[in-house]
Amino acid sequence: MNWDDLRYFLALARGRTLGAAAQKLGVDATTVGRRIERLSALLGTSLFETGPAGHMLTASGEELLRHAEDVERSILSAGSALTGERSRFSGTVRLSLSEGFATWVVAPHLPAFAQSHPEIALEIVTTNGFLNPSKREADLAVMLARPVQGPLLAGKLADYSLGLFASSDYLGNHAPIADVADLGTHRLIGYIPDFIYADELRYLSEVDAGLHPAFSSSSINVQFALTQAGLGVGILPHFIGNQSTTLYPVLPKQVRIKRSFWTVVHRDLSRVSRVRAVMDWLHQLVHAHTLLEGRG
Fold first, then answer.
1. 20-30 pLDDT, tens per residue?
2. What is the DSSP annotation of 68-108?
3. Between β-strands 233-237 and 188-190, what pairing exists: parallel, antiparallel or unpaired?
4. Which is more confidently placed, 194 or 80?
């Protein structure tokens, strides 16, 4: 086995398709496929299995990945020591995030991440529900609850808070809201009950069991837009609501909902350099973000 074989292996493990690996290496896809077949034959084991998400590592592939990245780190470190250049992590990291966190916290800071890690390509997935690291659907996920099973490592990323918000137009044209009981006479904005993918999103019932949304959406960004348009009172994370200049807190002392974000990664990927780089960056980002707890 030589380093050139491992380069092809790493490119496919990170790019997940022969085309993406070929583009990274500057060769054609047939060459990548042929080199991977040769490496598999040399080791006497299958390294990848194909599926809807592309080429996914087998257990043997995961084992080789750890060794290949150790070799890569050694080569990069040697190059850095000899040339004085900073070694760079590289490859693709698929990151599963909630829509609101991705839009309002992560996205504005991506230029700084790209500058620090120019060779890491982030794939940010914000589908309803989270991709599952235990099924290798994502390399890293930021979830609303800590998983209780599976070969996963989870750690708290940050606590955050939510509250009631309404536009100045809505508040000026409707009856005052002095306590939670008054909310029953107002139009509320929230999630579609049938499309709530995590119990942590059942905010209205936590405020009062009898509350139901008059306008609803599976998207927190749409809920924000509806609230800002003056259609009603919405529950928004403070890191969203506090960034608006036209929304005002409603009952801030009476209604303050607490939630947490958790980083979740498959145990086999927890020491992969590019995944660790993204995880470390997320921790740095949220610790510097004053809006998560409604500050700022």
1. 899 888 899 99
2. HHHHHHHHHHHHHHHH-PPP---EEEEEE--HHHIIIIIGG
3. parallel
4. 194
